[in-house]
Amino acid sequence: MNPAIAISSGEPAGIGPDICLALAARHVQARLAVIGDVGILDSRIRLTNNRVGIRVLQPDDVIPDHRPGTLCVFPMTAAKPVRPGKPEKRNARYVLDCIDTAVSLCLSGKCDALVTAPVQKSVMNDAGIPFSGHTEWIAGKTRADHPVMMLSNRALRICLATTHLPLSEVPGRITRPLLETTLGIMSCDLEKLYGLNSPRIVVCGLNPHAGEGGHLGTEERDIIEPAITEMRSRGMNVHGPVPADTAFTPENLEGTDAFLAMYHDQGLPVIKHSGFGQAVNITLGLPIIRTSVDHGTALDLAGSDSASASSLHAAIEFAAEFANRKIHGTQA
Fold first, then answer.
1. In angstroms, rounded to a whole number, what is the distance separating the alpha carbons of residues 319 and 136?
2. Fewer Cβ atoms within 10 A, N terminus or C terminus of the chain?
3. What is the DSSP letter of 62?
4. Per-residue model confidence (pLDDT) at position 331
């Protein structure tokens, strides 16, 4: 059977429902099931003039192969009516319930991978829910001790040592145990998901010029270099630290399987510039396969039929490839 992929539909006032509906026009070698409110999806069909048939699945139904023109949905119910572009904090729990249901489908084995549409973090926080992002939330639900965020397209993979933190807090979070654990997960999952043998990982410095020998910061000398030395002693193919401003030149990209950036905005602008809309957010270190889009909720585009589903489609393609490798030992 083709892999089964659960898709959480994201913030209902954003483009999540729109891009989920856009999947119905695509040919996908997988079994897709969207988790979301059927009424919201129906209203977006009317707004965007999409010709999509919704097939409501029951909990015990086997998810069928994806057929263009039809979207299979495990139904959930939002607490309050939804207006495109106008988030409602009383629907925050609904958004999380969609994610939790999709995670449960994967943990139970009914689905082989999870793909997430974008959510609005501020809505969760306004509702009093401590939510810093999908990565951390799903790690908690799957009891994963150390999730690693990776952004990937077909040419570039960038992992993050720290994720959603104020920049002022980043240096204090960069520790040898953090880096060593992150590098170990990267090496293991790059081999498992992509079939790479001894993946070559390049580590970015934290400071300009990777610290300039301690004259522009000591984190490289005191923390990053010792962590790299330790992981190399364990047989890992790790190099650096390299200055982040030259890390992603064509010469350095050659032969590198993945980079480790020290913080969110050190790594993500690079990959988004290299192909925004084709990049995919992948969480390493989980007991399940999880991919996501590389963009936010785009509230201003919700219901306008202007949102691109290219990143969601790419996330599904990656998820299907990873699942096929896990199930069959091959790529799709």
1. 19
2. N
3. P
4. 44
